[in-house]
Amino acid sequence: MIELGCEHSLYAFDAALEPALEVESGTTVRLRTKDCFSNQLRAADATLDALDWDRINPATGPVFVKGAQPGGALKAVIERIELDGDVVVATGEGEGVMGDRFTGWSFSHGRVEDDGLTVFDGCRLPLNPMIGVIGVAPSGDPVNCGTPGAHGGNMDCKDIREGTTLYLPVAVEGALFGCGDMHACMGDGEVGVSGAEAPGHATITLTALPALRIQNPVIETATHVGTIASADTLDAAADRAVHDMLDLVCARAQVAPEEAAMLFSLQGDVRVCQMVDPQRTVRFMMPKQALAQYGFEPLP
Which InterPro entries has this protein been placed in (predicted)? Predict the structure, then answer.
């Protein structure tokens, strides 16, 4: 296993960045990540007045993966997520879904203890460690780490957790992978603009798949295959995610588009990842059990 520290932080996915690390395809890397505030609110006496807003949503990287080619894909298997004990939760004026109700910013500290999260002076919540920002460089202009897109980025999908495999379309040689913005837990939508933000370590196996053709990220969990899409509105993102699944299933299973569409209505779930970023993100999840009956060819 190869390790990379969070001193190698990027704030935009950018094809012009020099790699912080170069690895062979199939290598497992352990990346130290900062929280979405670049750890600026960790101290008990931290204040929002001193926050440097140019250091938001850092990702650790970029990692150059040998064999990753434009037009292909990068396979990222989330092997392990290790979170530091302290978390930060925030909301603010003009942010998230409810930002019209506030004047100014508020934040609170919490603590990961045993198998749960304690926040707000005793509120106990279950953990769901996940990675909020994860992606590769786009071919054109840089995309800041706060914005999701076809390259991945700030998708805030709570299914990107231990055991999940994420497939990202590659636009530049080596992919230039990075990740960060990990959460101890987060609800679908991230409606208040923040999860339980925590620094930590992400252990990920990166494999180049130059022959796999996808337009947007695809995920595979123990039970489901999902397509992830980002767009200006939730409606547009959902439309794109469902169409991506139709293309994926019809290319990898023995099923007509009309039957696939009916199957999707019976078994598919449209789920909001986040509705607070410059682009909204939706995933469309299909059970593997249903797809297997049509001979769905698993992704490599």
Answer: FmdA_AmdA
